[in-house]
Amino acid sequence: MQNTLAALVTPGLIPELGHFALALACCFAGAQAFAGIVGPWRRHAGLIAATPALAIGQLLALAVACAALVLASLADDFSVKNIFENSAIAKPFIYKIAGAWGNHEGSILLWGLILGLCGGAVTAFGGNLPTLLRARVIGVLGGTSVGFLLFALLTSNPFTRLWPPALDGRGMNPLLQDPGLAIHPPILYAGYVGFAVPFAFAIAALIEGRVDAAWGRWVRPWAVASWAFLTCGIALGSWWAYYELGWGGYWFWDPVENASLMPWLTGTALVHSAIVVEKRESLKIWTILLAIGTFALSLSGTFMVRSGILNSVHSFAADPTRGVFILGLLGLLIGGSFLLFALRAGNLSPGGIFAPLSREGALILNNILLCSIASIVIVGTLYPPFADLLIGQKISVGAPFFNATVLPLAIPMFVAMALGPLLPWKRGRLAPLLQHAWWAALIATLTAGIASFGMGILPACGFGAAAWLILGSFAEVAERTLLFRTKAATSVRRARGLPVAVLGAAIAHAGMGVTVAGISGSALSTQKIVSAKPGDHFFSGGYEWTLLKLDSKEGPNYQARVATILISKDGVPLQLVRPERRNFTAQHQTVSDVAISTNFLRDLYVVLGEERDGEAVLRFHVNVLAPWIWLGALIMASGGTLSLLDRRLRVGAPVPARARKKLVTA
Amino acid sequence: MARRRLILLAPLAVLAAAGFGFFTMLNRMQKGRFDPHDIGNPMLGKPMPDFDLPGVGGAGFSSADLRKAAAAGPIVVNFFASWCIPCANEAASLANLAKSGVPIWGIAYKDKPPAVQNFLTQGGNPFARLAMDAGRVAIDFGLFGVPETFIIDRHGMIAWHHAGPLDDTSITNELLPKLALL
């Protein structure tokens, strides 16, 4: 297959084609920015009408560029520097494809492609938007694209050539040779970059000087979709760290992880505050700020990691020169946006008033708490480099800080999460609220009470919070379907009539509960480190672990040691597991392949370590409820996706036909 | 109204402050004066730990040897390994440093004698003395990884420390000025 590919094309043609397509995409993006900003400003019908076509053109050019990179990688074209540095002839086929975005240059190209896709999506699904707003949104997206494509072309060109071409490549970082990491970047970037659309809507609204309920309704599905992608992306990353790094944990408060958490927190706040704009025409300025801020955090997280400012276990080739370029780009993009915000946001007319105890009030509380947590994460992440810069002190901020500061804010948020949806808009009363939620509170308290007999107070509270979230999330659904208070058939009929968004919100909130349960479970997890020779057996976490044998194995581009371990409980054999320790010869790197056996209530997790004198270091973990952490994230994301199906989101505000006509004929 | 304007300017101000900070960091990183990846060393400013290490083929050295030699002038101690790619990258810079007359003593970390000899034959041997450490002494030195470089001053104290590979910039801007002071 690869040889045919190589023979089919003139050597070296494909990367040149890709390079050209990338430059073409940059030109399209520039034209798109010009037409989208100047067109509506000068009321130039031709320019306005050109924006969708330019966005599609940019997308097509980027698709060609990406295809060229993948093809060159498949054809083992080591005249391309990026492929020489990150690929090798012996690399498995699938990673020749996925590896194309597993490195800095390729990932920037992927970033650009997704940004192009956003523009294409606004073109495709934005048919019901007012023409001027759509042109402006596409224009802002185009301007953002120009910056990133220039960044790719000038400092991180994936098509840079090597002369003379190398015979074989250096191979990819073995840690990345993993199916999870093949799909992780596209999903995570879809989340990061997706927030470019709410950002573009915010900028367009600032230019127009108008934010209304319709704007809220248009911006929310984009925010929800990006949020769902980001949720999945973060969960995948954390899952990858869990099974690939072999440290037994799932979240390390590593700067790269924090970089993805920051926009997630503000993005979650955005998804909620946009509801207030949509329903009540309130919180407009704040929502605009969140839309800009979330995208700014998406970008700056990547910037801090790629420029080498933040210390991380994930090492991208840190390069201060690139850092200066991207900092300038960010300064221009975000600085310009905040300047526009300072100049224009004051003109937005304030909307409806409401009492503190109301749906709006609950959503504001949610926003305050989420943004406080986001601030804590930002401070904790940026403290070390700034402390170093300002007072010359080497400080590392780790899990103890984040756990101690985030938890106290998370608890009131969990309480409010279940209650908020039960409150009416404008003004709520305490009595009906308690009436609707008492049963969930009772069960949650009982859960925590029963749990506290078997564990510490904190995990017990965690389980209580999880029960509260899962049950409380469905309190509104139960309320609106008159569950158990009327005939079952009536409830079902009422459930059918429920807006999908209500169900989506309940599912997303319950998903958080599942994740909280999973995290609480990790407090009950046990681990044991032993040095073992074949035949040894150990007891840990209520299980018996017997090392049966240690063998060698030959992989496609690695050599591995394999341990065969029998896990039994009360003398009954349960499971044979085979953790591996892989030595990637080309890269001189050793990677552990963790053996995980799960039944969804607990993971049996075995890591094979170094060997010496016939004895191997083994780690046995019993991770209680661990799969729930990612399952919950998946439920959250599917709740968000479900709410996208709500018909109300897709129906645009009526655009006066006469106005549209006048514009076109003008 | 003016207060409202000021509040709306706040995000821009925060951004400007952060941007300025980042710019300074990047600028200093390029000049080798700022390294966020340098995690510091708890042994800095303390007496060097005691050890007695075997050599590679020939004789190794002990902390007593090092202290005696350092009494005459500060000595650079470099932890390296033949299996470590950044170590191969810093070899040329170390060779230049050795040529300029700075004494460098090498400690090969978790390595095998033939591999070390091969490594030094290929990349050049900048080391005045050479020893092998299975990992214990590295822990006493508070080693973070290889390569890592220390300066032992006339009193046998650890006077300077650099984690990660040295290059010509960091040698000119950091190591040599420090040596000149000692």
What does this structure look like?
The complex is a heterodimer of chains A (666) and B (182). By secondary structure, chain A is α+β, with helices and mostly antiparallel strands. Chain A has helices at residues 2-8, 13-42, 45-74, 81-86, 93-98, 104-125, 131-154, 179-194, 196-208, 213-245, 255-280, 284-306, 320-344, 359-391, 399-419, 430-454, 457-473, 475-480, 488-497, 500-521, 626-644, 647-650, 657-665; strands spanning 526-532, 537-540, 543-554, 559-569, 572-577, 580-584, 589-593, 595-598, 602-612, 615-624. In chain A, strands 2, 3, 4, 5, 6 and 7 form a 6-stranded antiparallel beta sheet that branches. A 4-stranded antiparallel beta sheet of chain A has the order 1-10-9-8, with no helix packed on it. In chain A, helix 3 runs antiparallel to helix 6 (104-125). Chain A starts with a helix and ends with a helix. The longest helix of chain B is centred in the first third of the chain and has 29 residues, at 2-30. Chain B is elongated and about 80 Å long. Chain B contains 6 helices and 7 strands; from the N terminus they run H-E-E-H-E-H-E-H-E-H-E-E-H. Chain B has helices spanning 2-30, 63-72, 85-99, 113-123, 136-140, 168-181, and strands spanning 52-53, 61-62, 75-80, 104-109, 129-133, 148-152, 158-163. In chain B, 46% of the residues lie in helices and 18% in strands. In chain B, the strands form 2 sheets. Chain B has a 5-stranded mixed beta sheet with strand order 5-4-3-6-7, sandwiched between helices. A two-stranded antiparallel sheet of chain B has the order 1-2. Chain B has 182 residues and is of the alpha/beta class. The model of chain B has no long low-confidence stretch (mean pLDDT 87). Chain A binds chain B through residues 285, 289, 292-293, 296, 303-304, 307-311, 318, 320-321, 323-324, 327, 330-331, 334-335, 338-339, 341-342, 345-346, 382, 384-386, 388-389, 394, 396, 588, and chain B through 1, 4-5, 8-9, 11-12, 15-16, 18-19, 21-30, 34, 36-40, 83, 85.
